[in-house]
């Protein structure tokens, strides 16, 4: 037995042992570690033909080695390298498009690895956390540069490999070493070795080691083919007599490493323990730079096991480098025989993950490491594939290739992982299985399962993932502990309360069904503890919490002792039933006070602390105590003496709750000459009235006769806050004369008056006599913060409805009458968390075991340079003159210019699609117009249409001018049905007849002139947001379509500039007369247009046309195309396009402020343009820096604002905490 075996059993650890605390990966066929293990154990071959979104293999393939060609059509590829959740990391779309997808993958996978480790990423900010990344290529940057992107953002984001580790360090604010390692195929395992060494040297406390590889160009495959290194059949056949090369593959893996002592102390997960590692180089051992050497690998193996304190003969399994090249395999097996093959009691098992997923190159080492860790955890070795005829010496002797899944029988297996670089850098890591983890016993108490995300859509995805993940084997406590304590909490939140997995599943289903709304924590809310007056009591209140909550019990016992000394009876006895339950004021008010104090103390023990306290009537006593103004004994004196004096008036008065404002009530009560008064102004629409019993009966009759709802205040036979309290107030002031209150530590808001008074005897006299001004006080509190949470500290909510009427706040009750207290207050805790209230979850759970849970549900959007796909795009030039609109264009004028019709752009795209040789009909989707332009009808331009394959059978399209100005973009799809909306349906709703002259007058008023085919309106009718029209024969398809779109102007009653169209579907054409129907969607600037032939059959539809009307925003500019030269024409009355990105000569979007355009819209337009997005996608509640604005962008934005508005805005302000909306408002 080695020292490691002995130390694990005794529970001790070596100071040189390093824990693999977290893991995450994406490999071909597997998007997670669990999926990766499933792939391995099912012996899946994840290699496929090279997808066309990387490059078109037909352009580069040859069956024989040839210059500029590759002999392999295959590879291992990730499912999605274009998608990224940029918003999650606060990265602007512009920045994301410039980033190497390897950086994007690293950010997401490193986050997942930290989650797996049970380490909150936000908790690492500013700490000594190292980042070590293996990366050997940067093909995205190479292609980006070749496409003409030369600025620093593209260079740093896409080309400089050194930025990859720094990107992660920057994103999480990590302060340890941040290093990119390039030793070719051994890069990522060298990164693991370096990370381990940095931990042992004390350079960092946590290290993230990763490797990444993404294949976007054929260059390396061509080079390897020339060197006969690639397998023609695209399979790595390690250990096979037929090994003939490797196949290239993509992948990313990340591991989180900690010193084992630290991981155990912190309770982090431990997947495996790294015992030793070593790095070496072959030197001149093989005689060739690119050929491996036996002695170099042998020396590395000896050094690694010496570092681990083990004999090489004790290793049970080695995950080989195992590329499947004949030379590489021969050398690796020889070194293993020499070092680990001697003196063995049982054969050394071998395998290679490359047989499943291919050679992930710079990520190969970490792929092997993750596989090795999984073998250590599961004690099963998956089979290596494609070795149907094993190489010599692998079926007998000391080395044995695993060709069928087999168990690892050692009690604590020793496993090695090898990785070799093409230039001779070798690395080996030795690991073993982790110490056994002990699950936390579930005690049956209710727990809170917390989920959160940065968007509602992501939260729903998270809920669905948890629902799938949770099963009967999940431990309730440990699951909830991990979610609450070991995960970051984001803006959109869900908290499900339960004591069993079944209850959590039910809660998740309710949320997914829309029955439970999510919470939102945009910022830390103002937390208000609200203490109501009498009326919330119920028999049995406090009993359960007294038994299960140490904090509640201690506070209640302290209050009980104070009441015993002050009044001679026991609060605890009344609550627990040891003494008779009484509803008299003299007893119930001190009991309620004690319960309120105990509840508040209980909440504080859970980490829920008030920013403000407010009390109502007797509730002010508990509020003052919690604020620190009164000691427990002083508070007991106030409440006991107050209630005893009030008891002396019992039976003389009564109180009514009424549904009317305090002002209205005071008018109704004038005839009672002050004997009946407003005792409490609770909300804008409710108050409490008090006075003598007989008069209150009359008041009730008055209210009933006026139809005003009212009800008697339950179990109250005194008239608090009325003239009947005058003597009580005077006596109380005298009895409390020696009271010496303290300055409150917490903001105490008085409901007696609006001043900041000392809470002395005079104050408590006023408290019992004066009107309770809750309405005014709460309104002032709510105006102090944009986000307030009011927690009622009472056995049952009394005032939360009033708060909801006063203003906007999240209201949460502590307990509910007759409901199980622990479950109720636990559910309330979940509500507070969902609203953004900080909770000390670590204390609440009191420890737990970190268990696997679903990782964050990324919300991917595609970020990719269109010009990058030059090998996969279909690019065609389309002559506008060939679209059949040349003559017709002479009859279309706008402000004296000829605009290029949108319908011409549609026809240009569809004509290219028809030219692909497919017989299927096509539709356009998600069309966006980037520039509206005018042309010279005597010299029509040429357009460039590009179609790019997309997943799901779609092709993305772009339409540019000949010189590269982007006019339109969208998606092309095949097939699809057309609307069945009947033309008669439109006739029934359009009854107002419109003459052609009236329409022409409307058009002229907005600058349009129609002649020739464009002036073919025969009849038209208008209805509510709707129009139907009959047109004469118009000619070509684009002319018909453009003419039919004139009904939009009819439906809206004004000109409208199209910004985009959801869907364009054309199934035929009109050879003669045709009809058009336009209908505006209710309350939105969106219109649907349908065209019908003379048989009333629909042959074209444009649905979801988003427009900008002249009424909603002034027009901006047109771009004139004359003889192939682009000129910008600025006019106060010409249509304004959205900000656009021009992909060639002009790299910056152009936003021009037009006369009369609202400054706020101009600011938002500039912000969106700099960030690389559109104004409608801006979250104006967030700061610019949180949207991804960096110092370079800040300088650009400042320059834009200076030029457009003449205002100097410092970059420091733009990068500050101010949100976008506030910034825009400050510039208006």
Automatic annotation (TrEMBL):
The keyword Chaperone does not apply. Residues 1157-1228 form the Carrier domain. GO terms for molecular function: 3-oxoacyl-[acyl-carrier-protein] synthase activity; fatty acid synthase activity; phosphopantetheine binding. It holds the Pfam family PP-binding. Keywords: Phosphopantetheine, Phosphoprotein, Transferase. GO terms for biological process: fatty acid biosynthetic process. Residues 15-433 form the Ketosynthase family 3 (KS3) domain. This is Acyl transferase domain-containing protein.
